[in-house]
């Protein structure tokens, strides 16, 4: 298949991709949509395609085991010890580690990276805020105590185990401070440059990123993580799922992602499908802060919507096993996850709820990603909601446009997904169940759900030291979100990745950043 790109991209790829007849032996070509990318700076990027690239580009002090994400293992840290105060950790860096630039990894880089992420205060900064870190206290919280040691302290009433999980999240990636500052403009700590470049120590580095076209990675043979087996990875933006299927079938791509169930069912010729458990939960969100549509802040609308989703029809018949019904914000596999299913399709009940609230002939603009399975889900919702007098105007767009609207609170409703940033129940709880309207940009904040009392309960849960009581607290919080929030949580994903039969060593884990190309061969 001949693919047409801009001249700039053809020149960028010419050295590594001489022909599309077959992909070169040490170049992996991945066909997927990368239209969601807003930034490739780990202090800012918070989209699925961005986050899935960060493990290839950056390392953290410690990272989750690929197959057992609850277990943390050293990465740039050789070791660490908790302070007797219960609110500090001292990390000793692994000797000889270098960034892709050749610069040594120093304790100063660790301090720079964590301070930078908090002060930039981009979308993922709220994860670090969970330790009580803010712009006015972060400088005093991160201290270099030797050339190869850094001490971190935090004011939040949480223990060292929780802090370690926070520091394993992509936003805590360690950035080459010398390279970032050399490319800084107007005091942005290199943020503008890092949107399209990399400054990490991971097994790959960015050769070139062209928005909506391709992300080209070259091997970082000196990575502390070890030299990758591949020379390069090309993540091609292929917007159409059917086109992705043809590319991988014909051998013009080695891996294809996000095929719809019909494309997966029709696959043939030298490929196989790997089903990977995912912690992604999919939900419908109503923006209670939207001033142009007052119905969106009415709890009766939220309650009725829970009875207007054809959960079994969408998961079983429409999406054919790519999703399972799941109605709580903690995914199955996380301690404390609720796995009951209190809601089902019941149009009569929804009509009665709306009638009591005086809601009729409501029209709502529904933003969705223009990729499978979201058009299919939206069409099902449109049909069932219409039966109760709610008219959904479906507005498909590329991922970056959807994220921009949601992050600026300018959407009315959207079908979205959320994946934990670290393996702890608080990762999702802090997103869905904290919003005091204090500038912390959680999922609840993005949808205008101000919940100071529930926020206090969620803060108390993360401070709970008894494991059984902690799980019970999170079950109670999930129940409140499940029954009273502007979120209709409906599904948990099961990723289906299509690979050419010759592709070996690909690993993908439960969390969004757990995509590993470094051991791939073909």
CATH topology of the largest domain: Dipeptide-binding Protein, domain 3
Give the helix tally.
19
Domain count: 3
What shape does the CA trace take? globular
What's the story with the biggest beta sheet? Answer: 11 strands, mixed
- In CATH, the homologous superfamily of the largest domain goes by the name Dipeptide-binding Protein, Domain 3
Portion in helices: 25-40%
Straight-line distance between termini: 21 Å
Secondary-structure class = alpha+beta
CATH top level assignment of the largest domain: Alpha Beta
Q: What's the gist of this structure?
A:
By secondary structure, this protein is of the alpha+beta class.
Note down, in words, how this protein is organized.
- The chain has 19 helices and 19 strands.
- The chain has 522 residues and is of the alpha+beta class.
- It has 3 domains: 7-33 and 205-276 and 496-516, 3-Layer(aba) Sandwich (D-Maltodextrin-Binding Protein, domain 2), CATH 3.40.190; 56-193, Alpha-Beta Complex (Dipeptide-binding Protein, domain 1); 277-494, Dipeptide-binding Protein, Domain 3 (Dipeptide-binding Protein, domain 3), CATH 3.10.105.
- Strands 1, 8, 9, 10, 11, 12, 13, 14, 15, 16 and 17 form an 11-stranded mixed β-sheet that branches. Strands 4-5-7-6 form a 4-stranded antiparallel β-sheet. Strands 2-3 form a two-stranded antiparallel ribbon.
- A hairpin with a 3-residue loop joins strand 8 (204-210) and strand 9.
- Helix 11 packs antiparallel against helix 13 and helix 18 (452-463) runs antiparallel to helix 19 (467-484).
- The chain is globular.
- The two termini are 21 Å apart.
- Mean pLDDT is 94; it is low at 1-12 and 14-20.
